[in-house]
Design goal:
The chain has a single domain, classed as TIM Barrel (Alpha-Beta Barrel). It is 57% helix and 12% strand. The protein is built from 17 helices and 8 strands. Helix 14 links the parallel strand 7 and strand 8. The protein is globular, with a radius of gyration of 21 Å.
């Protein structure tokens, strides 16, 4: 029997979650099989995933008809569909949640992307989602925006598991970790338990390389000087992994601090770095590069189905998260070289703005397509 390299990764302290969720996966038994046999230890979802799952899929028609008969709005029907899928996925992953002492077994659902810049609305929706889904192993996704981070603190303080999403820069990760610790400290101050709460910091990868590679290709069009061209070509496809390795070094400093030790003594769980956006977009690169290079302890990698399949087949598994760290520093610093001159802060800000748009657009498209389906099914639902 061919080895499943996904199972080998667990030996190095990394959990593999899947970035996909559909009702078909749940009802066919495929999700349960992936959890029980392939080592999938969690699920992440987002508006783009639900847009693909629900739009044009007849499997949801009966539930939509039920919503119409109950007099629900399109928004309420949407929530009833995704909340049911999240609950069922949570139930399938509950054994993992128990076996790992609440380390894994989570299913993530994102608050509406349209409120990414509204702290109070994010807090309210996170609490509402958590209460209505009513599963201990649901994780509420909150974007790591300026408005999102105070919401992370408040939601953690309310005792809710949080997946902080759309993190690109090391600085944004540090802000996310600060919000998590503040939320835990708030609970300690109030005499509340902190050992039941889990959080991950979702650090995005391939989108960074896509952005920087596009800038490099544009720069190469106007450069003839050989040395400058070589410098630019040398960093293509390497910045995202270097950036992630530096984030991991910051994570290690945080968990070595007296401040963290005080929280850990009260049962706090570390906020693991989660590698997201891990499908390779450039066909010239390895289809598992964002898996192989970032395997290491106390991390999560969330993979779309095609990357899960590729990694199970041919991942070269080893603990690499702390290899080539000096080179990672050099790569990031090289962006300031006059021959390169790519402003990393500008790239990260652009990616965050674009990332929110990439969730808002499919969310709006899903609501629109659901409205069309409601219009079609209303005559037969009455």
């Amino acid at each position: 029997m061919t080895a499943n390299h996904l199972l080998e990764i667990r030996q190095y302290g990394q959990s593999i979650w899947m970035d996909n969720l559909t009702r078909d996966l749940i009802q066919s038994g495929e999700l349960r099989q992936m959890v029980e046999q392939q080592g999938i230890a969690g699920i992440t979802s987002n508006p783009a995933i639900f847009q693909k799952a629900i739009a044009g899929n007849a499997i949801y028609d009966q539930a939509i008809k039920d919503g119409i008969r109950a007099g629900r709005s399109v928004q309420e029907i949407y929530e009833s569909l995704i909340f049911e899928d999240i609950r069922n996925a949570c139930d399938i992953l509950k054994p993992v949640y128990k076996q790992t002492d609440k380390l894994d077994g989570y299913v993530s659902i994102e608050v509406p992307p349209s409120i990414a810049h509204d702290t109070e609305a994010t807090i309210a929706e996170a609490k509402r989602y958590y209460a209505q889904i009513d599963r201990p192993n649901v994780m509420i996704k909150i974007p790591g925006t300026t408005a999102g981070l105070p919401a992370v603190r408040a939601v953690i303080a309310a005792g809710i598991n949080v997946n902080v999403t759309l993190l690109f820069s090391v600085q944004s990760y540090l802000g996310c970790a600060e919000a998590y610790m503040q939320g835990l400290e708030d609970r300690v101050t109030n005499g509340e338990e902190i050992s039941e709460i889990s959080s991950v910091a979702s650090f995005f990868l391939s989108r960074i390389d896509n952005n920087i590679d596009a800038r490099i290709d544009e720069l190469l069009k106007g450069i003839d000087q050989l040395t400058a061209r070589e410098k630019l070509v040398a960093i293509k496809g390497k910045i995202a992994i270097a950036n992630a390795k530096l984030a991991y070094q910051e994570y290690k400093k945080l968990i070595a601090s007296d401040r963290w030790h005080a929280l850990a003594a009260k049962g706090a769980k570390v906020q693991r770095l989660l590698w997201a956006s891990t499908s390779t977009k450039n066909p010239e690169y390895s289809d598992v590069m964002y898996v192989e290079e970032l395997i290491g302890p106390e991390t999560v990698n969330t993979l779309p189905p095609n990357t899960i399949e590729a990694c199970a087949d041919h991942c070269n598994v080893s603990d690499r998260i702390e290899t080539h760290v000096p080179e990672a520093h050099h790569l990031i610093e090289s962006l300031q070289d006059p021959d390169i001159d790519i402003p990393l802060d500008e790239v990260m800000d652009e990616l965050l703005t674009d990332g929110i748009d990439k969730f808002v657009q499919p969310f709006e498209s899903l609501i629109a397509s659901l409205q069309e389906k409601v219009n079609q099914l209303t005559p037969v639902a009455r």
